[in-house]
Write a structure and sequence with these properties.
Layout: E1 13-19, E2 35-36, E3 39-40, H1 41-51, E4 57-61, H2 65-71, E5 78-81, H3 89-98, E6 107-112, H4 120-128, E7 136-141, E8 144-152, H5 156-162, H6 170-175, E9 181-184
Parallel strand pairs: 1-4, 1-6, 4-5, 7-9
Antiparallel strand pairs: 2-3, 6-8, 7-8
């Protein structure tokens, strides 16, 4: 009989799940509502954050947000509406970070709804590298930066100022590359995206 490892909880870090995309290359099917293990994919993504150690989870919704709210069981989550979701992931990242204002969160651990190959182990590793509000931590896969990414609160304003289109925090991270702590997760996660019809084969 195996004993399940207890995940370290870091209340200062809030999970932020970006789940607003409309699935343009999937025929307009919002990724949050894709079925994975019999339930909407957004439920799986929230569970990964929680099992990885995030007590608080903010979920950014956009495409067919009302339907996601009705169909997905997301108890205890803060649901953040992004009316500008069609402009790209940058708007969802800004909305997610904005939603943390006044919550006391010192950092945000950001993940994407369409990466079901990234599980709690990767989240826990990135979360475990949190230090303070100046932290910049990223999961890495064979040395290449990926998700999830942890942004200390000291970086939020700078990220919001540069997050445009589908680039998210890419420009900010490139500018601050020397300050990013990379945490290798290639042995516990697979960072594929669900973007096309062919990618649906990854769902269960």
């Amino acid at each position: 009989m195996t004993t399940r490892k207890t995940t370290k909880r870091t209340p200062a870090v809030a999970g932020v799940l970006l789940a607003a995309g409309g699935g343009r290359r999937l025929g307009g099917r919002p990724k949050a509502l894709l079925t994975h293990r019999g339930r909407p994919l957004v439920e799986h993504a929230v569970r990964v954050l929680r099992e990885g150690g995030c007590e608080r989870v903010h979920v950014v919704l956009g495409a067919r947000a009302d339907e996601v709210r009705a169909r997905a069981a997301l108890p205890g989550c803060v649901l953040v509406g992004n009316p500008d979701w069609e402009e790209g992931m940058g708007t969802s990242l800004r909305a997610g970070l904005d939603s943390l204002a006044g919550t006391g969160a010192a950092a945000a651990l950001v993940s994407l709804v369409d990466q079901p190959g990234i599980g709690p182990e990767a989240v826990a590793r990135v979360l475990g590298a949190y230090g303070d509000e100046e932290s910049l931590v990223s999961a890495a896969y064979d040395g290449v930066r990926g998700h999830p990414v942890l942004f200390g609160a000291a970086h939020w304003a700078g990220i919001a100022a540069t997050a445009t289109g589908d680039r998210g925090a890419r420009a900010y991270l490139k500018e601050h590359e020397r300050g990013i702590r990379l945490v290798e997760c290639g042995d516990v996660a697979r960072p594929f995206d669900i973007d096309t019809e062919a990618d649906l084969a990854h769902l269960e």
